[in-house]
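User: Sequence recovery, please. Input:
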């Protein structure tokens, strides 16, 4: 089973240069998973979601997903927020890099953080712990999942930067992107005015 491409590649690429804060403001503060943080200082990214629902602490489904995921997609894993076992480590990150995965978003824990930073794949997760995963299942691929309290469907646009993750549904992507550019222009005008302010006498 593979995910279905539902968004425009141009739209998806367009979001890569938009801060997640601006995306969130442009969606009335919706679509912003809570509790997931960048595990190292990676570059911003944007890509379509390939979703995995897995039993807490079990990464069999992640390995199956990496056999199907397409270059440029984002692996989004609903691990139930379980923090007692890492769902990925450096070996999974190496496999993800080989598959040209844009990023990994894990609602759970990871390990091998320094090695993952050297590998260079953006990873967002809830926690870090040395304990490794089970590989027993069950799991589901390409199904609606929840990460950080936000529902993510296969093909949703996932954007990540230093502030966290934003999720955009493809039917609203063009509207949201246009609103983002309007907000960026307005913020730049405000920033220019603030730079000209002088202290009170």
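Assistant: Recovered sequence (201 residues):
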């Amino acid at each position: 089973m593979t995910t279905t491409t539902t968004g425009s590649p141009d739209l998806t690429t367009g979001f890569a240069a938009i801060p997640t804060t601006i995306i969130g403001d442009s969606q009335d503060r919706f679509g912003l998973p809570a509790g997931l943080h960048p595990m190292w200082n990676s570059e911003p990214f944007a890509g379509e979601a390939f979703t995995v629902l897995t039993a807490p602490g079990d990464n069999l489904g992640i390995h199956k997903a990496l056999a199907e995921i397409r270059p440029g997609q984002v692996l989004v894993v609903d691990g139930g927020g379980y923090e007692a076992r890492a769902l990925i480590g450096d070996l999974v990150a190496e496999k993800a890099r080989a598959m040209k995965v844009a990023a990994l978003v894990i609602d759970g824990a990871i390990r091998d953080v320094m090695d993952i930073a050297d590998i260079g794949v953006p990873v967002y997760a809830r926690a870090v712990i040395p304990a490794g995963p089970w590989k027993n299942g069950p799991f589901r691929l390409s199904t609606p999942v929840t990460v950080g309290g936000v529902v993510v469907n296969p093909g949703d646009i996932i954007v990540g930067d230093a502030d966290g993750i934003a999720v955009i549904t493809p039917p609203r992507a063009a509207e949201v992107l246009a609103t983002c550019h309007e907000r960026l222009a307005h913020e730049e005008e405000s920033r220019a005015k603030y730079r000209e302010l002088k202290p009170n006498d």
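The mean pLDDT is 95.
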